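It would be a great kindness if you could assist me with a short task in structural biology. Thank you for your consideration; the sequence and its tokens are set out here.
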Amino acid sequence: MGALALAPTLAAAGSCPADKVLAKPREIGDHKNVGVKRKTLAVIDLSKWRSVGDLRLRTRRLTIPVGGVVPTHEHDDRPSIVYIIKGEIIEHSTLCSVPVLHRAGEWTPEFGPGHAHWWENKGKIEVVLTSSDVVPPDQLDGPDM
């Protein structure tokens, strides 16, 4: 089923509609990775900057094939900004009662208590996005995953 067929139940403009934002996080299930490729583009060591601690600012490119799934993950303690470069992708969030459609040219922040989500590509082309996040060094992955 294509993303357009889901349009009546999706949030518009890449964010959760105000009347669909949840005060208490909902259960979204544990979805596993399906076909996602990750490439680390840059990492900056923040440990000597403003006493921020042993953290890194990382930017990755994710490529999600048609039918691909970015697995369920949390952002309680990992701020991130995602920018959609190509395609459309659907986000399922603990903090929104409806799926949210993100399109090329849109960005979305990811951070805060109870914030967890998973993404799926139900479109007709692969999705390419960048994700910049702040992580401790033990959460860095290899250059290509």
User: Anything to note?
Assistant: The beta strands are 37-45, 56-64, 69-74, 80-86, 88-93, 100-103, 107-110, 116-120, 127-135.
